[in-house]
Amino acid sequence: MTTVRVIRDILEANDRIARDNAGLFSRSGVFVINLMSSPGAGKTTLLERTIERLAQRMKIGVIEGDIQSSIDAERIERHGVKAVQINTGGACHLDGNMIRDALDEFDLDTLDLLVVENVGNLVCPAEFQVGEDMKVMLLSVTEGDDKPLKYPLMFQQSRALVIHKIDLLPYVNCSVEAIEQRARALRNDIEIFQVSSTRGDGLEPWVEWLASQVANKRG
Amino acid sequence: MGSGFRPRAVHELSIAQSILDTVLEQADKHGAVRVLRIHLRIGQLTAVVQEALDMAFEVLTRDTIAAHARITVERVPWRVRCSRCEHEYSVQNDLPTCSRCGHLGGETLGGRELQIVEMDIE
Q1: Which of B94, B98, B103 to mutate to test the interface with A (most CBs of A within 10 A)?
Q2: Does residue B1 register a pLDDT over 90?
């Protein structure tokens, strides 16, 4: 028997593909966000409201990740934005390779913003890079303020956090202050937005911040 | 396997597949005929459940030279440097709370590891 020293990152192959994707995005000057949350937190609804406010100002593309169905891509395309649906067939996250394949459907040079809506899950998407400029996380107030304690990596990896469905705060036992304090303990530069996509509260600060990030990358 | 368990198992399945790819490549490089043990380093911040990983690995390694290989895991604590007093500590509770000054938050130094460290072959 021989012991062989290896020392290799297990996700190295995915990280390499993600870096290649990031190179493509940089060459085309497209800003890419990886949107993550648990199922039902409202990723697609937030995205629809965001597209309505930004579509006149920039060219947007969307990659929708779901275990199955193309409902989300159809919702997005009703807003006149190209959406490519990835069905992971059981896998709980998108990876670099799936995104690479989906990119063939876009003319990246014409895009300003590409949104990758990940599979609803607070665990796995945090581990798998896809080549994004930043991860953005949604947490709806119905999920509770203990989520930063249970899923620290997700909060730590996210450049921005949208606390969603704030119109429901009167009906749930959830402290927005606790979410903010805990999220900042995990990442002190995290941008936090409080949003209700159904009522419209807080959408403007979120949309303007996102637009400024897109403009920064375009240079 | 119940459907409720599936997402987590699938997460470890991707990781098990990546491990197997590297292990087979390394085994081939060293002319191995059998892989006996694979030693991993897994950080506390990563959500890897060893039972799920073992199960995924068992399924994936059938008919390979890594079939029946044992997986051993060294867990790496979540290490943080306090952003107020610079003390370095392992996170004991849910959030990084400095063991010296009680400050919440700091820079993560370790705990995100997901590595293959070594393997026994013959």
Answers
A1: B94
A2: no
